[in-house]
Amino acid sequence: MTGAQLEKILKKHDNQSSNILAILQDIQASENYLPRKTLEEVSQRLLVPLTQIYHLATFYRTFSLTPRGRHVVTVCTGTACHVKGAASILNNLERELKVQPGETTTNKEYTLETVNCLGSCALAPLVVIDGTYHGRMLGTTVLSMLKGEKKGASKKS
Amino acid sequence: MSEKELVRFQIDGLEVEAEKGQMLLPVALEYGFEIPHLCYHEAVSPYGACRLCLVEVTKGGRTRMTTSCNYPVDAGIEVATATENVLRARRMILEMLLARAPHSETILTMARSAGIEETRFPIIDDADGCILCGLCERVCREVVGANAITFVNRGDKREMAPPFWDPMACIACGACVYVCPTDCIKMEEQGDERTIVRWKRTLKMQPCKSCGKPFAPQFQLNWIVDRVQLPKDFFELCPVCRKQKK
Ligand code: SF4
Ligand code: SF4
Ligand code: FES
Ligand code: FES
């Protein structure tokens, strides 16, 4: 992130340290992750200790400290989804994308993640692709959706 | 500041008096009651992390269990420090703490005196004794002002660490070493270097201009000089030689 870009974000939030979460969200949205250098700059500019920023950055699921892929695939592994076969979906994706949860494919296309319950257990097993919820999934369906061959029933998050 | 209001209330039937809004734990301790506690220290704000200081408080006819270190006292409350409920809950907490810090003398002693020989919980594989009480972080932030460490991640990945595991802000003062209830932060000195082992911070020490003995990390001295705006040569001498000069 360039200095000018950061400047714009900080200005949008009145250079207020109390807006730190919104600032981090904007950086995440723009870069797809929170670069260390940018966080250090934010810390110096707003006089917020880096410890506090790092705490927030590692606490919330929306933030990532490593670059995320262009598409984020999140498999729900909560109880209901687990019972309905989340593990096999996850296995399928791990094998095909050659990544573990939390990792990004070498071509920076996909990031695989897991989450514990999205509150839509009736639709289990659930997979979220780029923010869109897809219910009653199968490993194979997810894969073909990723390849853009098929659109599943969806509900915007 | 507004005038201090004194309130009267009861602890285990004894009539006590304290400033309104003071935390219950220090008041009870001062009156000689024994309430086990690990994450409380009078030098920093309470945090309610270890849950050991549980007591039962009756207020307006209702009784509930609460941590005493962060419970502000009020007139007329009735506190019970060792009911069957409290003791049972405390034993459970001690067993859980034991699973995290199986070698901590402090916790072992507490557990034994509560009648616990061993924990029923699986001992955490790489248990390093940290019970995530947050005392080190509060001391580093509120007392030292270095802001070198923080809680990181959440759930079972939660840990205490410097940001990016880079202890760049740590001045190796050792305050966290002193305050850690499970002794899991170690400090070592070798030659002219001091290391805070847990945070992986090693700093060179400044030799005393008179006796030549290394006495404090250079980084720490510069940090203090900077913050308090002392003359640059303020820390030339070690505390011993400084006294003699006077
Ligand atoms: S030794 Fe480092 S981490 Fe510990 S209190 Fe001092 S500055 Fe903070
Ligand atoms: S290192 Fe010690 S003081 Fe710090 S959180 Fe862990 S147990 Fe508490
Ligand atoms: S367990 Fe997956 S949505 Fe609840
Ligand atoms: S001392 Fe009260 S919760 Fe730890």
Notes on the protein architecture:
- The complex is a heterodimer of chains A (157) and B (246).
- Helices cover 43% and strands 13% of the residues of chain A.
- Chain A has 157 residues and is an alpha+beta fold.
- Chain A has two domains: 3-59, no CATH class; 71-150, Glutaredoxin, CATH 3.40.30.
- In chain A, strands 2-1-3-4-5 form a five-stranded mixed β-sheet, with helices on one face.
- Chain A starts with a helix and ends with a strand.
- Residues 149-157 of chain A have low confidence and may be disordered.
- Chain B has 246 residues and is of the alpha+beta class.
- Chain B has seven helices and eleven strands.
- In chain B, strands 2-1-5-3-4 form a five-stranded mixed β-sheet, sandwiched between helices. Chain B has a four-stranded antiparallel β-sheet with strand order 8-9-10-11. A two-stranded antiparallel sheet of chain B has the order 6-7.
- Chain B has two domains: 1-127, Roll (Ubiquitin-like (UB roll)), CATH 3.10.20.740; 135-245, no CATH class.
- Bound molecules: iron/sulfur cluster (2 copies) and FE2/S2 (inorganic) cluster (2 copies).
CATH architecture of the largest domain in chain B: Roll
- Class by alpha and beta content of chain B: alpha+beta
Q: What is the element string of chain B, with H for helices and E for strands?
A: EEHEEEHHHEEHEEEEHH
Strand content of chain B: 15-25%
Number of domains of chain B: 2
- What overall form of chain A do the CA principal axes indicate? elongated
